[in-house]
Design goal:
This protein is of the alpha+beta class. It is built from twelve helices and 22 strands.
């Protein structure tokens, strides 16, 4: 007869990993397995959404699913068990409730308390949150299973978190300060050591305000946030039929934090130019008919991207970043070209690695893959890291242009407006021509007006006379 101890020994717990640098939580979007299913090493068991992207998680061992710890729609802290797998090869065992669990051993027989470590973060004690789901009710049996799983995980975390140096026999190791990726980036840009910052957020998380407070008085800081009480609507006057409240989380939350950090860290300057792109539009149509580009996505954005790459080659100092801690300008000898993409989960900016070294067909292929992957919600965190310069195409929405905010850590971003027929003086006569407006925002700490103007002028000149792609490229 198999004992409870033997059953427990055969169960492996798969914990929520840190699928991106410094992430603290992820939301379970979809389970691909159920209790009783057989899984193999490397099989994808669920899809989760982090603050950066939606990611599929593979299980690292073979076995039978014994329990799904959380239902879809739950936000789970990194390091928390999300699925239990029986690796003994037997059938799935029934889920235990806390009342059925074996009694704890006497105090003198308990192993020394250990400090739980979140992947990439250190100890965390924040609780798991459940996102409200409209029109969906959890069956009573499933609800009891979830409650049991949550209670078991919470009890384990609480048991470890209350351990003292006396109980463990040694002082706990120094943990890494808790902070979201945008806050870490802000601290790096401002030269602030997070270990010396006093956290004010829940569960000891360092906020943007904490970082600003640790900066010397001469540093320009963001305006003080409005008190929550001033923005909140009293519950007595809130009418759910007239208003809808949407929690800010995932990609949208990360984007908001990154844009605020960028706006108050890098001094932005934006320049504009209106250009006749009639010849570029004709070249796009010609390329679509050519065999060299057969099967590839050919559109104006492709030639605009190539024009920007040529302009960067002619003015390489714009392809740089600002190192606040070292007080240095870091010149990049490569271009990871970011393309802003609007997705159902929010705006993301994946980038084409080493775009400067690609031929036009290769650039078209990379651009097509980037767009299709983003639309499917499958963009990986790695694809959104390391960008140097970005293009945002607001023209697809019928907008003439805008003043884009820099992607954090980058030096410039080019906004492309809609292309439309307008009256234009061409060869001394007013004629209908295809015209668009470009806007280039850049970090004025490392890009002065002359350099920014040269880059924008070069892009405009190439789009007006695309043969310059050959003579300049």
């Amino acid at each position: 007869m198999t004992t409870m101890t033997e059953v427990e020994a055969s169960v492996r717990e798969f914990k929520m990993p840190d699928v991106g640098e410094g992430l603290t939580e992820a939301e379970i979007l979809k389970w691909y397995v159920q209790v009783g299913d057989t899984v193999t090493d490397g099989q994808v068991v669920c899809e989760v959404e982090t603050a950066k992207a939606a990611v599929e998680l593979p299980i690292p061992y073979d076995g039978v699913v014994r329990e799904l710890r959380f239902p879809e729609g739950t936000t789970v802290d990194v390091g928390t068990s999300i699925i239990a797998v029986d690796v003994s090869g037997g059938a799935a065992a029934p889920v235990q409730t806390p009342a059925e669990a074996a009694p704890e051993p006497p105090a003198e027989e308990k192993p020394a308390a250990r400090t739980p470590v979140l992947v990439g973060y250190g100890v965390a004690t924040s609780s798991t949150k459940r996102r409200p789901r409209k029109g969906v009710e959890i069956p009573a049996q499933e609800a009891s299973t979830v409650s049991a799983g949550v209670a078991a995980v919470q009890a384990e975390l609480n048991g470890h978190a209350t351990a003292t140096p006396t109980e463990t026999g040694a002082a706990a190791p120094q943990s890494r300060p808790l902070a979201k990726p945008p806050v870490r980036k802000l601290a790096k840009d401002l030269g602030v050591d997070l270990a010396a910052v006093t956290p004010s957020g829940p569960d000891g998380v360092i906020t943007r305000e904490d970082v600003h407070a640790a900066v010397a008085p001469v540093t320009v800081q963001a305006p003080e946030p409005v008190a929550p009480s001033a923005l909140s609507v009293p519950s007595a006057t809130y009418d759910s039929t007239r208003e809808t409240r949407v929690p800010v989380k995932g990609v949208r939350k990360a984007t908001a934090a990154a844009m605020v950090g960028s706006a108050f860290t890098a001094p932005h300057v934006t320049e504009f130019v209106t250009v006749d792109v009639t010849r570029t539009m004709k070249l796009v149509e010609e390329l679509k008919q050519g065999k060299d580009m057969e099967g590839l996505r050919v559109n104006p954005l492709l030639l605009i991207a190539k024009a920007l790459l040529v302009a960067i080659k002619r003015n390489p100092d714009i392809n740089a970043s600002w190192d606040e801690a070292a007080q240095e300008i870091v010149l990049k000898h490569y271009v990871n070209l970011g393309i802003a993409a609007a997705t159902p989960r929010g705006l993301i900016v994946p980038n084409i690695k080493d775009a400067h070294a690609k031929t036009l067909p290769q650039l078209a292929e990379s651009l097509g893959e980037l767009v299709s992957t983003a639309r499917e919600g499958k963009t990986s965190p790695a694809a959104m890291q390391g960008g140097t310069v970005t293009i945002t195409n607001v023209g697809v929405f019928g907008i003439d242009t805008g003043t884009p905010i820099l992607n954090p850590g980058e030096s410039a971003i080019l906004a492309v407006g809609t292309i439309k027929l307008q009256p234009w003086v061409h060869k001394g006569k007013v004629k209908p021509r295809q015209v668009t407006t470009l806007a280039l925002s850049f970090d004025h700490r490392l890009v002065d007006g002359e350099l920014g103007s040269k880059v924008l002028a070069d892009v405009a000149a190439i789009l007006e006379q695309p043969k310059r792609l050959i003579t300049w490229g």
